[in-house]
Structures are given as C-alpha cells and as structure tokens.
Amino acid sequence: MTDFLADNLDYEGWLRTKQHRVTSCGITVPLDEINPILFPFQRDIVRWAVGKGRCAVFLDTGLGKTFIQLEWARLLGKRTLIIAPLSVARQTCREAKKIGIKVAYVRSQGEISGGASLWITNYEMLDAFDLSRFGAVVLDESSILKALDGKTRKKLTAAADGVPYRLCCTATPAPNDSIELGNHSQFLGICTMAEMLAMFFINANKEHTLFDGNGTGYRRKGSNKGGTEWRLKHHAEQPFFQWLSSWAISMMQPSDLGYKDDGFILPELRITPHFVQADYSDPSQLFFTHLHGIKDRACVRAETLTSKIEALKATVATSPGQWIIWTGLSQESTLAASLFDDTVEVRGDHSPEYKAQQFERFQDGEFRILVTKPRIGGFGMNFQNAHDMAFLGMNDSWEQFYQSIRREWRYGQESPVNVHLILSGQEDEVYRNVMRKDAMANRLRRELVGRIRLYEEGELQMLEQKDDLYAEAVVTGDRWTAMLGDSAKRLPELADDSIDLSVYSPPFADLYTYTATERDLGNSRDWAEFFEHYSFIIREVLRVTKPGRLTCVHTSDIPAMAQRDGYIGVRDFPGAVICAYEREGWVFVGRAFVQKNPQAQAIRVKSKALLFVQMRKDSSCSRPALVDQVLLFRKPGECAVPVTPVANGEMDNEKWIEWAHGIWLGVHETDTLQYSVARAADDEKHICPLQLGTIERCIKLYSNPGETVLTPFMGIGSEAYQAIRLGRKAVGIELKESYFEVAVKNLRKAESASKGLFADAHEELNEVCA
Questions:
Q1: Which of 374, 494, 643, 711 has its CA 20 to 30 A from that of 307?
Q2: CA gap 61, 73 in Å, rounded
Q3: Are residues 600 and 527 located together in one domain of the fold?
Q4: What are the residues whose beta carbons fall under 8 Å from the beta carbon of 255, sequence distance 6 or more?
Q5: Do both 196 and 276 map to the same domain?
Q6: DSSP 521-546
Q7: Tell me: the pLDDT tens digits for 415-441?
C-alpha cells in the first residue's frame, strides 16, 4: 500500500507538469519596490510581469501600459530596448519623466553608451540594432507584429530569441484572432504558431460552412478564400484560456479583475455617420448595387471626395475646439488640410522628427486641427487634449477605426468624445461592416475577459489552479465492474496478477478531441509526452496481468499533418507502442492486421491520398488505406492456467487457420455498438469504437470462459460488452462521463442477455477489485 501511495503521488506530481502553463523565468519583487504613483492593479501587473520575465500585457488603451513596461524594465535592471511605433517613442520619453525614469531615444546601436539603461527606438530602425546585446526587450503596441510582413516579423522574433526577458504591450486582442496571439507567443518564446494551432485550434475552413467575415455570405468547406481560418477546439477552451492567462494579462477596465474603476470610467462616446449623396457610376454594373473588393472601395472613396468636403467643413464648424481629421487617401489628406486655418498635416513622407514634433505641438494645444492617417497617428498616441474627430471616408479595418477613436476616447478624457463619419451613400456597406465588426469585437472581448478572469486573478495572486473536471464513480453488475476515472489513478486499485486478458484501443494523440482535462492521454503536446503519460498505464496493466497472459492493443498508423507534424505523410504509431511496451517489460509476440475498406476510409477521414481523382492526377501522392493492427504482448512468466479455445468449443482447425493468417478478414467495419448517443456536443470527432468482431477474436483466442477481461480505455464499453456476452467477466475504466454512462447501459444490456450464466462470477470479481 505504501508503494501504491508513493507511485500515485508521483503520477499526480507528473500530471501537473503536463498542464499548459508557462513557467516563470523572472525575479520576485515586493510591492513596496514598485513606484507608488501606479494604481493598485498596475502595481500587481508589474509584480506579475517581473516574475514571469517573458509575458504580454493586453490592457485597453489608457490603462497605463507605458508605466507598466517602464517599471518592468527598471525593476529587472537589465539593459533594455523598447521598440515602439514611430509616433510613440518620443511620447514614451515624456511619460517616463513622470515616474522618474530616464529613457533615451536612439536610432542605432552606436548611439547606446553609458548613463541610461533604458533606450527606445522605432520598428523602422530594427536593422540598426543587435538585440543580443540587450538583457530585455519591450515591444510597445505589439499588435504591429500582425501588420509586419512575414520576413520582418520572423527576423524580429529570431533577433530576440536569445534575449532573457521579453515583454509585449498592446490593447486587448480579439480572442478569435489566433494569428495575433500566435505571433505574440512565438516572439516571447512560449511556443511557435504551429504548436499553438496544433494544441488548441482547428482548421475552420474544413467544416461544412463558415461565415466569411465580411458580412457577404458563407464559405463552403474546403474553401481557402481569405486564407485559413482557425477556431478554438470546443474541449480546448478552458485549457486555452488557462494557458493564455499563464503568460498574458488581459483587461478592458480594472473591475474586470476585481479592482476599483475610480479614475477609469470612460466618458460618453457619440458616433455620428453623415451620408452624402454623390454621383458615382461603376462601369461593370448597369445600376450600382454594391462594392467589389478593395479596389472598388478605393475608387468610390476617391470619386466621391468632392461631394464629402462640404459636409466635412460644416461638421468641423460645429465645434471650436481641437479636431483630428482622419484620412485614408493622399488626396483626402491634402484637400482636408487646405480647408481650414490653424491646421497641420502629418504625412507618411515626413521625417520621424517632424511627425513627433507636430504630434507634441497638437498635444500642447499649439494648433487647432491635425490631419493625418490612422496608420501614422492612430496607434499609441495620447490625444485627450481633443474630444472631436472626423473620418473623411472609411475602410473596412475595424482595428484602425477603433484605435483611432481611442486616441481621444481614453481614460483621463473629461469630455464626451464626438466621432463624425463623413461618407458617401455608396460607402454605407463599409460603415455597416465596421459597425458589425465593432459589435462582434466587443462581445468577444467581454467573453475573453469573463472566461479568463478566474485564471488571471489566480495568476496575480499566485494561486495554484485546481482541476475541477475530474470525477470518480463505480458501478457493478453480476459479472462486471465499471469505474469512472483516470486509468493511471484507478488501475492501482486492482489486485496484483488478477487479470487474465486486457483488450483495448488507446487514444491516439489528438489534442482536445473528447475532453479538456490533462488526465486524458490524448491531450499531450507531442509523442514524447503522450508516451510518458502512457507508461503509467502500461506499467499498471503489466502489474495486474497474470504471468504468461496477454494484452491486445488496437492501433493504427496515424496521418502526419503539416500544421502539427511539419510534414504530410504517415507516422508509425504501432511501432512506437511496441517500443513503449518493451521498455516497461512486456514481450512483443505478434500482431494481426485487420482489413479496411479504402473507399469508406477516404470518405470518413477525407484523405486525398485514397481518392480516385488523386490516383488519376498523380498516384505518387496516393497511399494504401491505414489498416488496424492488433498488437499482442505477453507478461513474462509461466501461464498457470492454459487457454484452451478448442476444448472450450470456441475454436476449430478451420477457424484457427483463418485467424492465424495474420490478416483478419471478415471483420465488418460497421459491426460496432451504437455510439452516436455517446457523442457530446463539444466533441470534435465521432467516437470510434472497436469492431465487435475484432474484440471477439482476441477474447476467444487468449482467454477462457469465466476469466476476467480488462479494458483501461472503456469508451462506450465495447470490450467489456463482448467479454460478458462471451461468458467472461469484465473490468472497465473510462475517464469521460458521457461515455461511461453509455458503457454502463451497454453492460447492463449484455448482462441481461446472458442472465443465468456464471452465477458465482460477481463474488470472484469482487476479489479481483479488492
């Protein structure tokens, strides 16, 4: 019993290492070392971030990300480079003075010398720096990772790979933006984009229908229009948010995480569209109906500009205060700047110094109207000095729209913010699209905050997360015992040398297909973790099996996928299982191949390699169907009771010749227990119960009537059902409660059908489970 407790504690300890949580690599600092000018929630986030060392701070605009990143760098005490958008760097230097930190603005590695330990530069200057010479790097407005081209983003990520401490700061990302989250995870060195997608997401393009994201319709399965879209696997939602909270703090307002909102209550936001009638004809349409793509939108925007100018002038005349006029086209910017006195235009071709100077002048109230584009001044700037703005035309980017509004509508703003949208009637669908995205983003971000709150509060308070998904139960019949729970935990309850045969199909590594818990063997990051977990069960099955007796393990080769494995092909899962069993002391004694129908498999698994069209197009990309393999392993030692299927009347010479052939024919793929009722709404795949014919051959060949058959992965009870039907006793263990409930019904059905046989079996079975 002492050995059992020690082994079980070892398993529970190992299980905690399987959780998808990011370990800390930073330092511990007491709260009183953090600048008291920061709000309580800001101080807690700083302490958490310094402890993590590599993490992300996803705080909505105005919640103090600048102070947090500056304190993070100061407390770590390492040579730190902050990389920020062009317009933000000078502003950060000004903000740093408020908390007594010196930050020097530099444009190349050669400008870094003694004195300050914190430097700031722009993303455009990245090539001029050697990040390996810094101990810490901060990405300010890190959502820019999504906007950078692939080559630049990879270069930045690779350059920071050896930097011990890394911090990303940006406004709360949309929870369905897997690309943005993946970019952050990869830059921080937490995991690659491919690893994140393989763990938690599923390719939504392969589903039956998918809303296309621009409000125009649905995309059929297999379509790649607009690129691959990913959604969270249903059972991965809780693990994903727990994993995300272990390296990112997300907040829209302090009360999201239980803090007071004093000083962080936004004023009223008033968004007013002004639709102007304008003449526009599309040569491709007899009558204008709708806009086609980006080019069409740009043409409408340009050709209706003259009609919108008068509306802009009238709108700006309604308020004498400072204004920002957001434009998207060069001609819009030039024309808008010429309309008003006391106006400054900031263009993309202006020097960084000029842009920063004019933005600071506007902040200081030195001129009335700023004309610029969202991609120039719409990210990171603090323009609470103004509370009126106008968009001269719009594009479909919700992020640009939202970020531009938040330059004025942010914490610290004391007046209602007025947003005027100057649009032609033809641009109505652009407006409606952005408003739809805004409503969706607000809902999704609220969902993100709600789902992640408990985990983030635990992170900030440094509490240990508990597994609330696990349950245990036992249900018995005359000749069977069904155990709900984790096989690695429940198998030790069985007596040594008490099982005559085990038959089962282990879950193949396919993350979050059926359950969310780390106890699920399938929920493993990779094969190494899968087989490490599997080893606990293999050892226990060996212990409970009688000497000289067998275990029959159903396996199959597994398709290798580019996103998960890095290549398209086939992985030798049976070979890996054989190695795992031999490592734990089992003797591999043979295998049987179960014939499969390639056409049925092609339809079921949607494999191009099995299609007629692929054979005709290029048969070098075709392959045989993946056949089932039943692997046979024997426990070392002498078999005390011979298995005699001929004497039992379950075998004759003709049947032996057929079954000993090595390729089992005549096993019908549809010969399974009814399983659709067991599938939960969140399951990503149908359960795949083992064919009853395959189980029957294993039981008749390798056990005697009245003996006990074990299945540590019971599922809906197929192996135990056949054991009872064939006059054996059964012990089954299942982790998923919905499967367990169906299995119990199936076992009762089998028991009822064979009532009266082996009346004394229940008493003997209790001895096995003592």
A1: 374
A2: 20
A3: yes
A4: 261
A5: no
A6: TT--SSHHHHHHHHHHHHHHHHHHEE
A7: 999 999 999 888 888 899 899 888 877
Phi and psi angles of residue 573, each rounded to the nearest 5 degrees, phi first? -65, -45
Residue partners of 526: CB distance under 8 A and separation at least 6: 509
Domains contained in the chain, number: 4
Residue pair 392/422 in contact (Cβ under 8 Å)? The answer is yes
* Same domain as 754, residue 719: yes
Whether residue 168 is contained in a domain is answered as yes
Q: Each residue of 139-173: pLDDT tens digit?
A: 998 887 776 667 778 889 999 999 999 999 988 66
Q: Quote the DSSP letter at residue 690.
A: P
Query: By 3-state DSSP, what share of the chain in percent is helix, strand and coil, each rounded to 5?
Result: 40, 20, 40
User: How large is the greatest C-alpha to C-alpha distance in the chain, in angstroms?
Assistant: 106
419 φ/ψ angles, rounded to the nearest 5 degrees:
-115, 120
| pLDDT band for position 527 (cuts 50, 70, 90) | confident
User: Is 471 strand, coil or helix?
Assistant: coil
Please tell me the number of Cα atoms within 13 Å of 754 on its side-chain side: 24
Task: Reduce the DSSP state of residue 290 to 3 states and report it.
Answer: coil
539 confidence band (pLDDT: 50, 70, 90): very high
Q: For residue 296, what are the contacts with CB-CB under 8 A and spacing of at least 6?
A: 282
Q: Give the range of the structural domain holding residue 203, as residue numbers without chain letter.
A: 191-236
- Reported pTM: 0.69
3-state class of 240 per DSSP? helix
d(CA 455, CA 467): 12
Judge whether 380 lies within some domain: yes
CATH code: domain of residue 326: 3.40.50.300
Q: What amino acid occupies position 701?
A: L
Q: Are 665 and 716 contained in the same domain?
A: yes
The residue among 675, 569, 697, 694 whose CA lies nearest residue 628 is 694
Other residues' Cβ atoms within 10 Å of the Cβ of residue 130: 10
Amino acid at 133: R
Tokens 């007594």 -> residue: 100
Rounded Cα gap, residues 759 and 765, in angstroms: 11
CA angle centred on 648, ends 647 and 649, rounded to 5°: 90
Does 347 share its domain with 357?
yes
Q: Which residues pair with 104 in a beta bridge?
A: 119
Q: Residue 40: helix, strand or coil by DSSP?
A: helix
Nearest to 390 by CA among 304, 442, 439, 318: 318
In percent, the amount of the chain with pLDDT more than 90 equals 48
Sheet holding 248-251, edge to edge: 103-105, 118-122, 80-84, 136-140, 165-170, 54-59, 248-251
Structural domain contains residue 6: no
Helices (H), 210-329: 237-245, 293-303, 305-316
Calculate mean pLDDT across residues 192-215. 60
Residue of higher predicted confidence among 529 and 234: 529
**Residue 241 within any structural domain of the chain:** no
